[in-house]
Amino acid sequence: MKNYSIIRLGNEYVVLAGDKSVLKIASRRRAAQLVTNAAELLDSHPPQPTPTEPSIACDPDVLDPGVTPDPRGHT
Asked: What is the enclosing helix (H) or strand (E) of 24?
């Protein structure tokens, strides 16, 4: 995790990834340890490539077998 910070809010610590709050915990030391563990997990599993082909559910030309087309040609 390249862009994270730990800030104190009252009696708790908040881990921020970029500008999003991802974790609230009572111990700064535990927050730092969890960030380290998360970074190791992310490094050990590279991100999966996103599919380039649209799914069948998104393809308007593929008809749902459970739906009977309108014989007048309207959808």
From this structure: strand 20-25
Residues in Cβ contact with 8 at an 8 Å cutoff, skipping those fewer than 6 apart: 14, 28
Kindly compute the dihedral angle of the four CA atoms of residues 64, 68, 71, 72, in this order, to the nearest 10 degrees. Answer: -60
The Cα 54–Cα 56 span in angstroms is 7
pLDDT digit string (tens) for 10-52? 999 999 988 899 999 999 999 999 999 988 988 887 777 776 6
Place of tokens 């991802």: 22
Domain boundaries, the chain: 4-46
Other C-beta atoms within 10 Å of 33: how many? 12
- Judged by DSSP in three states, 6 sits in strand
User: Does an H or E element contain 62, and which?
Assistant: none
